[in-house]
Amino acid sequence: MSSASLDARSNLAWFLTGMRGITSLPALILMTSFVGFSAFALESGITRDQAVFMTLAVWALPAKMILIGSMAGGAPLAACFLAVTLSSIRMMPMVASIMPDMKSERSPTWLLLFLSHFVAITSWVFAIQHLENVPRERRTAYFGGFAITLTLVNAVIVGVCYGIVAQFPPLVSGALFMMTPVYFFASIWSSARHSVVRLAFVVGVVMGPAMALVDPEFDIVYAGLGGGTLAYLLDRFVIRRVGRRALSRPASPEDVP
Fold this sequence. Notes:
This protein is an all-alpha fold. It has helices spanning 3-19, 25-43, 48-57, 61-72, 77-89, 91-102, 109-116, 121-130, 139-164, 170-191, 195-214, 219-248. The chain folds into two domains: 3-191, no CATH class; 194-247, no CATH class. 77% of the residues lie in helices and 0% in strands. Helix 3 (48-57) packs antiparallel against helix 9. The N and C termini lie far apart (71 Å). The model has no long low-confidence stretch (mean pLDDT 81).
């Protein structure tokens, strides 16, 4: 057997190994959340085909929530585009952090660009936890096996559950609907690595309802830009300054045990 055939078989084996990651707890939670997304899409007037297309094309669940929320609020197309774009920019540091660990000397650029589409919170956490245990030349196959499978499975879940959730009792539908924002809140908070991110999250949660009262069509854009800018300024000129003062303050007798 040629070396090319052996290489292909090895990549396939690692791809199948990555596929098994969909049975992990984070993946199962995400799948349940996509059932809630189906209920959210149905209640918002999004068709089944549109919901499935969003799952494949947008993929990140928070971005789809923002897109549907903007559409349901009557926001213009440009505002919807801007809101989703700003939401997805947060994925760039995730892509930048794992791609150097994922690629090898033989990794084609087109493959890395293709796999970057599937980088979201769940797949990023999975990669951080498991890639170091995979041979470098097999990491793209391993990550692709997990991320691509997770995306396709969730697209199937959305397509199948879209009609089923309409038959659920109101209490069950409400619980599934709440799974999506709960997952959104928990995943964003747990994945934050810097204080400014959590500060921006808190400011955005407060500003979101306030901006909805001021201008419902652009509330997400205003809350995102305004909240992020305010959080950055507070972190840069208040929190960091207080931290530097605390570090530079000479020790007093009370501080000595």
